[in-house]
Amino acid sequence: LKEYDGKTLVSVTKEGLELPEDEDEKKKREDDKKKFESLCKVMKDILDKKVEKVVVSNRLVSSPCCIVTSQYGWTANMERIMKAQALRDSSTMGYMAAKKHLEINPDHAIVEALRLKADADKNDKSVKDLVMLLYETSLLTSGFSLEDPQTHAS
Fold first, then answer.
1. What are the sequence ranges of the domains in the chain?
2. Which of 53, 75, 112, 124 is 20–30 Å from 44 (CA)?
3. Are the C-beta atoms of residues 39 and 120 closer than 8 Å to each other?
4. Closest CA to 68 of 30, 28, 102
5. What is the secondary structure of 27-86 as a DSSP string?
6. Is 55 helix (H, G, I), strand (E, B) or coil?
7. What are the C-alpha distances in Å from 72 to residues 1, 69, 119?
8. Domain spanning 17-144, CATH architecture
9. Is the pLDDT of residue 13 over 90?
10. CA distance 84 to 55
């Protein structure tokens, strides 16, 4: 089912979600993109191959960040099902597994504090730890499973 009542159905867990915005919201989003550009780069460097990109989101309200998948990648649930398959093909798992994008909420206090810390010293261990904690927490809240749950728990 791709369409209902003349409206195209889209998954909110995939990238490219377009929400209606007025001029003030568009201007604020552009300002936020500029303001958080350095933080996005620092987070991408820390997360390296775990995410394809880190971007400022306009879909988040109360969460500091979330994981979304690429437009044609697997959803979190599909990835979980495919990992559970007994006769899965390991060669296809690599490229079919969801290309994850981390979206950050520019209005959240944690993200703002992280930006200030990263601007002060991007090589600070607390910045790296906080980025990893945010990433792993958003993996869980977005429906994915952790690669190493023991490290997250400790």
1. 17-144
2. 75
3. no
4. 102
5. HHHHHHHHHTHHHHHHHHHHHGGG-SEEEE-SS-SS-SEEEEE-TTS--HHHHHHHHH-T
6. strand
7. 16, 8, 34
8. Up-down Bundle (1.20)
9. no
10. 30
- Find the mean pLDDT for residues 20-49: 88
Q: Strand order in 53-56's β-sheet? A: 53-56, 100-104, 65-69
The helix (H) or strand (E) run that includes residue 26 is helix 23-35
Beta-carbon neighbour count of residue 44 at 10 Å?
17
- Reported as half-sphere exposure (CB side, CA atoms, 13 A), residue 95 has a value of 2
User: Among the listed ranges 26-40, 53-67, 91-105, 140-154, which one has the minimum average pLDDT value?
Assistant: 91-105
Contacts (Cβ under 8 Å, ≥6 apart) of 11: 75
Q: What is the pLDDT of residues 54-63, one digit of tens each?
A: 999 888 889 9
What element of type H or E holds 53?
Answer: strand 53-56
At 77, the pLDDT band (50, 70, 90 cuts) reads confident
Handedness of CA 140, 60, 15, 103 (dihedral sign): negative
Bridge partners (DSSP) of residue 152 are: none
Give the global pTM. Answer: 0.80
Q: Which two tokens stand for residue 153?
A: 């728990």
